[in-house]
Every structure is written in structure tokens, then in C-alpha cells.
Amino acid sequence: MTNETTATTDAALANAGGTRLWVERTGKRRYVGRSSRGARVEIGDIAYDEAFTPGELLKIALAGCSGLSADAALARRLGDDVPVTIQVGGLADDDEDRYPALAERLVVDLSALEPDARERLLTVMHRAIDQHCTVGRTLQAGAQVELSVVGER
Q: What span, in angstroms and rounded, lies between the C-alpha atoms of 141 and 42?
């Protein structure tokens, strides 16, 4: 992560579909994340029951991305209303102040499938997640992060 005092370019802050994303401080160690589409999420430290920590949001983003990546294959073979839960976790290494490993568990009932169909679905799901989960791919490859601070001098 770089720390600069010059403004990050608008192009560097671009998102899919032209969506703008930002976070606003709402109190001591409390923020709200917003999108120009009207979505919002409460962010805070672990002391706030009604808020996600940034680390929890990272993990939820990973699980959500995996689910969205596998969703078409799951729905095609198990129906549009197939119940799916993706559990996600990983403890931080306090000395390094990072998550050295994250784990996901996709829970879905595959009992209606024949063994060959089950194995094909698992292969397709893993391939879809490996190829299309942008969050997972970014975490595995690492990403350059740029921070600029803009304000009065």
C-alpha cells in the first residue's frame, strides 16, 4: 500500500457499471459503506453488534463471489430455488496484521444427483469459481493498493 498526498485519479476509482463506492465516518470507529445504487453496509470494530468489521466484509465478499460464480451451474442442475449456504472464516495473524488463510465451505444438497452427475457438477463449480471469482482470484494473486490523502495543507 502506498501512502501519497496527491489525489488518486478518477480512472483509478472506477467500478463496474459506473457505480461509485465510498465509506463515510458515522462515529468513533464506525463507518457506513455506500454505493451510488443505494446499497449500504454498517462497518465498525468488533464491539459493534450491528456492524461488520472490514475483515468480515472481506470474507463475506469472498463467499459471495464464490456463490455468484457457481450459481448458474447449481441452478441449472438443481433448480432455480436450490438452497445454498457458503460458510467462510479465517483468523488474523496479529503479528502480521493480516489473514494468512481463509476457508470456505459451500453447503448444498447433492443427494438428488447420480454419482457421475455429482462429480461433473463439482468439477464445473470449482472451475467456475477458479475462473470467475474476482475476489478469490485477487486474494490469491495479491493486488497493488494505492492510497492517496486529499485535504487542506
A: 28
Pull the grid cell for residue 88: 467462510
Residue 33 to residue 126: CA distance in whole angstroms: 30
Residue 153 has pLDDT above 70, yes or no: no
Please give the Cα distance from 6 to 150 (Å, whole number). 7
**Residue 7: what pLDDT?**
60
Task: Write down the pTM of the prediction.
Answer: 0.90
Task: Please tell me the number of Cα atoms within 13 Å of 122 on its side-chain side.
Answer: 14
| 26 SS3 class | strand
CA 83 to chain centre: 20
How far CA 93 is from CA of 11, 42, 44, 101, 102, in Å, comes to 33, 24, 19, 9, 12
